[in-house]
């Protein structure tokens, strides 16, 4: 084992500064004099995009032939941690075979808006689901002694002006939504590295934001790896280093290295800060080097099959009016370019040079009765009348039609955001025309984020395939014909139209300022609170079998916030096919005194059941399941009250409910002022004892002789009670008839504060 501290002590100032930036686009620097090796990183997170030394971040030069697994938008839909672990282990093995020490992923940024061009890489609108899925992938990759780089830290939720914009977010929203997705994965799975984002958070660039890179990430969460910049995210190298950014990527040509050296020489930067950064980098370099597996093999064909099995759990059955699964003896028209040449991954830094791709048309080659019509072009959004007519004719002559549609690369990609939530007009026209000719029409969608479906009432079935990797066609065919029972659930809400999205009014922002005015009400948290009709709710996904939920049990009906609550429920497969069900647990706080979502996902599990089989799912809930971030104490707080435990098949399909009373182990300190209203004091019996004599003063309605009918009609009892409830303590001066002064109120406030 290399003694890293000893090694750093032997390095020159210039060598240490040099190690804090890349040698090129993909390698850390070597120090030959001391035998320190270079270390290679590679883009991910759903495949290995290894490029040579001359490669570039955006992938203009070819990367090696590799395997494209489903993107994050799809893998999150699996609600299956084990599936993600297995996928991660395969990616880790590939990295070992190719000499890659760190794969750059997973990406856990919240899907704040359907328009974000990079949503296909991200997991969910829900931070708990995103963190759990990311943690599972990290666990799998790092089980092979290869590192991950969870990204993009922090609040990187749009491509528009992403290198200069400032995400303006209040403290509670940051903690409950945007930090939370990272927090769970970092604390539980300890990624080797964290990648900071380009943008600013409340005015300070992520790369130089000590609050999040050091105080939160390291101080609170215990992160012990190195922080690497997103490629080109460094603005002020010395300030970045002081804030906690260890490694700058890519190479700076020595310019920033010299700035670090000069800052140390001038006394503006403590050399211990530099030493710490170098130690962090070398710890990861040697963690990989000392566990190199020189026998590892990148078996692309075997991993292609793993990609297929993964994709089978990422495809969501959104609608099925008895049309699926298809009969293998039926005449089925496959329509749409994506049946022949599927869109199965997104554009940009995660784009994989796939060693092979299985289309749905290829996968269905052994099934008699399959015909094909191109249907549309995806290079332009213009209806090709000849292709349309051929598609309608093929559908009319078949028993069923399956349209393979979705978003072309020109509609969603890294680098730019979508301007609308629509599919190409030519594809929408195709769907309507085919559905008019063939009542048994199914649409299979290839997209990385929600789309509007103006034709939803015209078709009998919809499969959301997301971007399901290079084996997408085989997975689609298996589900269409019933070889595989669909089990995926939506990790995001599909609104009926873009304008329904809570960020709609503020998304993209003004200039470089992006205000997150919707606060914690992201995705289903907003739609459920508003009781708004949606196209498909969060957590929705159908199956070819049916499941019954029963026998909900809670381990206690009352707990302290230091206790844990165990929740169990029985799930029974009541259908005729084996299947998997993603069981979701939501917590609601109906008694809350703060503005909170209607419910929040706090646990989930996926259970596989044979026909007639019953299994018990168990969940353990801790304080965080009931807590919100309280800005008065800058910490999580579970207030006193009754909480509802909801078990369901989606956020809008709750099957079982139970209740538990939670008591906090410590009260939030209260500080009274002259502006404190009586209503806020009424819950404190000791305070009311002090105030009782004052509330009987004639000016406040106590002991008044004027009880005429006219007076009673002017000021009702309800009005008087409300006026008292909302009056601040300083109001006693005005209504005491001269008996109390402002000095008296100050003394009263001091007496009340001594009660705490």
Could you explain how this protein is built, in words?
This protein has 756 residues and is an alpha/beta fold. The chain folds into four domains: 12-50 and 74-289, Glycoside hydrolase, family 3, N-terminal domain (TIM Barrel, Alpha-Beta Barrel); 308-492, 3-Layer(aba) Sandwich (Rossmann fold); 547-663, Immunoglobulins (Immunoglobulin-like, Sandwich), CATH 2.60.40; 678-753, no CATH class. 30% of the residues lie in helices and 18% in strands. The protein contains 24 helices and 25 strands. It has a six-stranded mixed sheet. It has a five-stranded parallel sheet with strand order 1-2-3-5-8. Strands 17-25-24-19-20 form a five-stranded mixed sheet, with no helix packed on it. Strand 2 (102-104), helix 5 and strand 3 (147-153) form a beta-alpha-beta unit. Helix 4 (81-98) packs across helix 5 (127-142) and helix 15 runs parallel beside helix 16. The radius of gyration is 30 Å and the shape is globular.
Mean pLDDT: 95
Per the principal axes of the C-alpha atoms, what is the gross shape? globular
Share of residues in strands: 15-25%
DSSP helix count?
24
Span between termini: 55 Å
Find the CATH topology of the largest domain: TIM Barrel
What percent of the residues sit in helical stretches (DSSP H or I)?
Answer: 25-40%
Largest β-sheet summary: 6 strands, mixed
Strand order of the largest sheet: 9-14-13-12-10-11
Count of domains: 4
Give the CATH architecture of the largest domain. Alpha-Beta Barrel
Number of strands: 25
Structural class: alpha/beta
What would you give as the CATH superfamily of the largest domain?
A: Glycoside hydrolase, family 3, N-terminal domain
Rg estimate, integer Å: 30 Å
Which stretches are poorly predicted, pLDDT < 50 over at least 5 residues?
none
The CATH class of the largest domain, by name, is: Alpha Beta
